[in-house]
Amino acid sequence: PATGPWQESSVYRSGINLNEIYVLLTMINNCIISVCYNVIVSVFIFQGAKKPFNEVIRANIGDAQAMGQKPITFFRQVMALCSYPELLEDDKFPDDAKQRARRILKACGGSSIGAYSASQGIECIRQDVSRYIEKRDGFASNPDNIYLSTGASDAIVTILKLLVAGEGSNRTGVLISIPQYPLYSATLADLGAVQVNYYLNEDSCWSLDIPELKRAVTEARQHCNPRVLCIINPGNPTGQVQSKECIKNVIRFAKEERLFLMADEVYQDNVYRDNEFHSFKKVLFEMGSEFSSTVELASFHSTSKCYMGECGFRGGYVEVINLDPGVKAQLTKLVSVRLCAPVPGQALLDLVVNPPQPDEPSHATFMKERTTVLANLAEKAKLTEEIFNTVPGIKCNPVQGAMYTFPQIKLPQKAINKAKEAGQEPDMYYCMRLLEEEGICLVPGSGFGQRKGTFHFRMTILPPTEKLKIVLKKISDFHVRFTKEFSE
Ligand SMILES: Cc1ncc(COP(=O)(O)O)c(C=O)c1O
């Protein structure tokens, strides 16, 4: 941020001093590592330090529009109309956009998106979400089970809050994948829940293996009460897409072990190559009533990712399945305390789940824009894997989905020693050197968790293709140089 407590720090006041930034970074928890990077970028920009590059390229955060992706025209037309209804008289806006805006406004208090909504979310939008899920999965969805939220983050935190209880060895344990998305570890720490790690299998494209889940849950039972299993599919930071067979096995495991499933599916349209996204809800219902009437599931979606990239609107939802009615009543109470999710975010979510239809004037443009974004991402996913795998010492799994790559980097022992002397994780040292020498911002693997003795970084595939090519070249050259420097 341009302003804030950072300004109190001597780093900010006295100009660029990487040693101080290192200290600052190690003081800040992993969970907000990307925030740290914002600080570093600000220091570079605000201090005007002389560096061997013209710009800092931020490949650290999954924020598509910040990386130049254009918003979907139809979405912004409807949002403009909802925000300033006088525009409904303007001929520049297509009829279907006006129709959507009128429908949304009619559902708002005082016909204004500036009014609070029902705490669970605007009813007609929850109905649209249900219809979207039904169309996606081929199984019924009940709008009473949909809660609109402030991005997916808010819904994830709310559901975890609902599920965490107990004391001592009876405290709720929550299984999360390693590498993980830091929202989970941060929330569990905040709630005082027990984080139970299960490792994804890097050697088979970050697959989720049942024996590893079994190991994690069995060990955890000795000191806590494992009750929840979180899955991110498609994966962040690892970019894998789980097969239907894998999801079935996970559901069977959850039933056997009486675990509540949390399926984070915010990247559900970001699926490349021949992979296919299967929602947990669909697979659960395909497995028959033995599972679909017993296994508890919360699945999450968002306006922030996929082809939309509308992170700033903070739109999202959770669908809950097989929640005990008493627990559901508590959930409703919990969301009511905070009044409601942002109404503009709810409106935008409505457009995501109910986009222009083939017989509507905006359909062709919408489809063209959507397809272009997703095709570009698919192309960049392939390019990233191909280029990284040509570099000795970088090993990159296929980017099957989401917006990230999480390659393993081989670091010379001398570099590891050097980092340790400075009290740093070796991959943090690597990323800081890359930032300093090439102006490229990545996140070290240690921010997400990784098997001991392995090192990674996470890079987004969001920069425009030409810029991404430059980024990949710079990282490749840097890696060779860095390896040589510490091998001599
Ligand atoms: C796996 C995962 N879940 C949830 C979120 C949060 O998304 P939102 O912007 O909807 O809160 C992110 C954001 O990067 C994510 O990667």
UniProtKB/TrEMBL annotation:
Pfam families assigned: Aminotran_1_2
Organism (species): Takifugu rubripes
Pathway: Amino-acid degradation; L-alanine degradation via transaminase pathway; pyruvate from L-alanine: step 1/1
SUPFAM superfamilies to which the protein is assigned, alphabetical: PLP-dependent transferases
Catalytic activity: L-alanine + 2-oxoglutarate = pyruvate + L-glutamate
Family affiliation: Belongs to the class-I pyridoxal-phosphate-dependent aminotransferase family. Alanine aminotransferase subfamily.
Entries under InterPro entries matching the protein: ALAT1/2-like (IPR045088), Aminotransferase_I/II_large (IPR004839), PyrdxlP-dep_Trfase (IPR015424), PyrdxlP-dep_Trfase_major (IPR015421), PyrdxlP-dep_Trfase_small (IPR015422)
Cofactor dependence: pyridoxal 5'-phosphate
Protein's job: Catalyzes the reversible transamination between alanine and 2-oxoglutarate to form pyruvate and glutamate. Participates in cellular nitrogen metabolism and also in liver gluconeogenesis starting with precursors transported from skeletal muscles.
Gene (name only): si:ch211-217a12.1
GO molecular function, one term: L-alanine:2-oxoglutarate aminotransferase activity
Protein localization: Cytoplasm
A cellular component annotation (GO) from this entry: cytoplasm
Gene3D superfamilies assigned: 1.10.287.1970, Aspartate Aminotransferase, domain 1 (3.90.1150.10), Type I PLP-dependent aspartate aminotransferase-like (Major domain) (3.40.640.10)
Complexes and interactors: Homodimer.
Span of domain Aminotransferase class I/classII large: 78-475
One GO biological process term: L-alanine catabolic process
Protein name as it appears in the record: Alanine aminotransferase 1
Key words of the record: Acetylation, Aminotransferase, Cytoplasm, Membrane, Phosphoprotein, Pyridoxal phosphate, Transferase, Transmembrane, Transmembrane helix
Entry EC no(s): 2.6.1.2
PANTHER family found in the cross-reference section: ALANINE AMINOTRANSFERASE (PTHR11751), ALANINE TRANSAMINASE (PTHR11751:SF480)
TM region(s), chain numbering: 21-46
